[in-house]
Hints:
Layout: H1 2-32, H2 43-98, H3 107-125, E1 128-129, E2 132-133, E3 145-150, E4 153-159, E5 166-171, E6 174-179, H4 182-186, E7 195-197, E8 203-204, E9 214-222, E10 225-229, E11 237-239, E12 246-249, E13 256-260, E14 268-273, H5 280-292, H6 299-356, H7 360-385
Antiparallel strand pairs: 1-2, 3-4, 5-6, 7-14, 8-13, 9-10, 9-14, 10-11, 12-13
Helix pairs in contact: 1-7, 2-3, 2-6, 3-5, 5-6
Amino acid sequence: xxxxxxxxxxxxxxxxxxxxxxxxxxxxxxxxxxxxxxxxxxxxxxxxxxxxxxxxxxxxxxxxxxxxxxxxxxxxxxxxxxxxxxxxxxxxxxxxxxxxxxxxxxxxxxxxxxxxxxxxxxxxxxxxxxxxxxxxxxxxxxxxxxxxxxxxxxxxxxxxxxxxxxxxxxxxxxxxxxxxxxxxxxxxxxxxxxxxxxxxxxxxxxxxxxxxxxxxxxxxxxxxxxxxxxxxxxxxxxxxxxxxxxxxxxxxxxxxxxxxxxxxxxxxxxxxxxxxxxxxxxxxxxxxxxxxxxxxxxxxxxxxxxxxxxxxxxxxxxxxxxxxxxxxxxxxxxxxxxxxxxxxxxxxxxxxxxxxxxxxxxxxxxxxxxxxxxxxxxxxxxxxxxxxxxxxx
Length: 393
């Protein structure tokens, strides 16, 4: 008899415990709206939810990185557009001089205007965004362009940024760069043979010269004893007029120009123009100095120099157009990646909701069912446990 009562008691207690626990869990789900409130509710599902939450956090971090990178590129695009507009203005001013719209006396005022444009472009090239210089490549802590001045005016621009761009991971296994290498944007890299514009008879030699952009080669001395210099006379190289491939080296940059001296017939200055290596700053410096005719060139040679300078502006203008297209394409690429990440984030959220969110209607039915079972268990327990010894006699 004792064993039977104990069995009844144990069974009733277990039923009450199971239904009571189920009621508590259902009530908690109804109040929180979540099926999983602790890992013990459903360990495998809880682990999956943790994975999805971690994935969502990672996707949101990548999205934020893309937004920040896009902001940098938008700033770069804006600056490049401003520089392109400035170059276009310089082209207009130079065209007016070359075409004779303005008198020779206006060259000095045009040169001043070109100098102002040069200062403006240098400032734009050293644009800083969020505490970092956007055209310094992998090194963005200091100004990428350093100006060397004489009497307050820029005579030389040196790129001191990094020659490699900094890559940023914008998605799992996908990298992109936000910091452009200024030297790649503002200087051509499609080298052609140097052209010498001069009335002195000097010609380019056959050696592989390393000079870039536009530079002045000065020729002094007398027949049979000419001195040639690329750095304004700081370093000279003499010739008796028989050298067909004289190496003239710039003392500051180390650049070399190979010169054929056999046709030299007078002293003066020659513009060394290297197509495919023009840069924005050097082009404007050359134009400014040519407009002032600091080399005291004859009018015919000066016209040739200014026409060549216009070609250099056209070259850098095309370079800027390519840069604008490149930056625009990269911005579009980032936007596509961002849209994909946002869609993945939404999918992750949907999957998490499917696993985690409670179906209130279903919970209401389960709660009602459990309440009935619990009440039935209580009723049966009351009936069975109210039996006395007399009920068995």
